Amino acid sequence: MFKAAIILSQTYNITIGEQFIGWQTVQTDANAISALRSTCLAISSSNIVGIVGPVSSREANFIADFAETVSIPVISYAATNPDLSDRNTYRVFYRTVPSDNVAAVAIAQLFTRFNWTSCIIVYQNDDYGIGGTKVLSEAFSKN
To answer: Engineered SS bond to 104: which of 29, 59, 117, 136, CB 3.0-4.6 Å?
Structure first.
């Protein structure tokens, strides 16, 4: 979808600073430092005005911090860590998906609505799973 938007912008002669909008992809491997290294290399060799991605919240934390220092926006289509919603900390970070807080509130409301009193949570043992479990536990405590 992103590539299609770039092609359309070029077809209709849409420019930024009299230059056509281009793109560059960098593959990351869920390693935050590797993602940061790739981002630094891309920015140092191109006229980057924004970053789309990364997918993981762990990478997004690093990339958003870096992007703040060089004043370029970051938009992620998959990072859901609620901490990324803090506008004071992540001023240049945006996302197209809701944070885990939204899902946690919805799940807590389901429990309230159907008077469920227990459940089993299966999660991945990483930042994503631990963070999701944390916000879910907080939502249950509030309800």
So the answer is: 136
Angle between helices 127-142 and 57-70 (to 10 degrees): 100
Pairing state of beta strands 15-16 and 19-20? Answer: antiparallel
- What is the extent of the structural domain holding 10? 1-97
Q: Are residues 8 and 60 in the same domain?
A: yes
Mean of the per-residue pLDDT values for the chain?
Answer: 87
Of 18, 19, 23, the closest CA to residue 6 belongs to 23
CA angle, residues 55, 73, 60, in degrees to nearest 5: 30
- How much is the pTM? 0.74
pLDDT in tens, 32-44: 788 888 888 888 8
Q: By three-state DSSP, how is residue 135 classified? A: helix
Q: Tell whether 48 and 103 lie within a shared domain.
A: no
Residues 101-119 have pLDDT tens digits of: 999 999 999 999 999 988 8
